[in-house]
Amino acid sequence: MAVAAGGAVTVTTTGVRLLSAPRTLAAIRTPSFVTTLSYSKLVFFPERIRNNEPARKKLLVIRAARTESQGVSLGSRAPNFQLPEPLTGKTWTLEDFESYPALLVMFLCNHCPFVKHLKKDLAKLSNFYMKKGLAVVAISSNSVATHPQDGPKFMAEDAKLYNYPFPYLYDETQDVARDFGAVCTPEFFLFKKDGRRPFELVYHGQFDDSRPSNSVPVTGRDLSLAIDSVLSGQPIPSVQKPSVGCSIKWHPQKSS
């Protein structure tokens, strides 16, 4: 792996390109979550050699499932919700997070390969920032009619397995997903709160550039930079890369 001054690298479809060293260290912004990782762990694995057609077909299937988060207006208020947590049986609402300066809402599920790719790092990032004052909640809105593996029982098992430090809530009616404008998993909504003002959306972008079908390491860089900015009172760029994942599995329409 090649790392430039400050640990900056770029990844292209043809490999890794070293950035020219900046004149000042201040020119590179590295999220505090990323700086806690050892560079020895940020290894760029070479593209696996695909010697057969089945492997290629598997890659194409992942690409076909890709859905990008859509434009939700920055500055919009966090919708109210009242949802159960399968692991504990507790019901959570937006008001439970009113005392926090920032709230991260993540739409996840159990089965999606894009979510599986990040599960351990979602827990690590959340643990890191929850200690700094961030509130975090995850929601699964997938239909159990089409994807029973995303149901409450398995959500509770997932929360235990990955030691999620945040409540993992079940949106059975899918109304909350619609209220937020969520369309994929994973999808991230970062809200900030100034005093008694309602939570306002400041970031609706990706976790980082890593995907199940590429060799980019998971760092959480994009989301971490946004959280760092919110917690430090700094502005967040309005140009944000959309999150990419599986589409939310909506309930089948009932025939009349």
From TrEMBL:
It is an enzyme of class 1 (oxidoreductase). It comes from the Eukaryota. GO terms for molecular function: oxidoreductase activity. This is glutaredoxin-dependent peroxiredoxin. SUPFAM superfamilies: Thioredoxin-like. It catalyses: [glutaredoxin]-dithiol + a hydroperoxide = [glutaredoxin]-disulfide + an alcohol + H2O. Its EC number is 1.11.1.25. InterPro entries: PRX-like1, Redoxin, Thioredoxin-like_sf, Thioredoxin_domain. Monomer. Residues 72-232 form the Thioredoxin domain. Belongs to the peroxiredoxin family. Prx5 subfamily. It comes from Hibiscus trionum. It holds the Pfam family Redoxin.
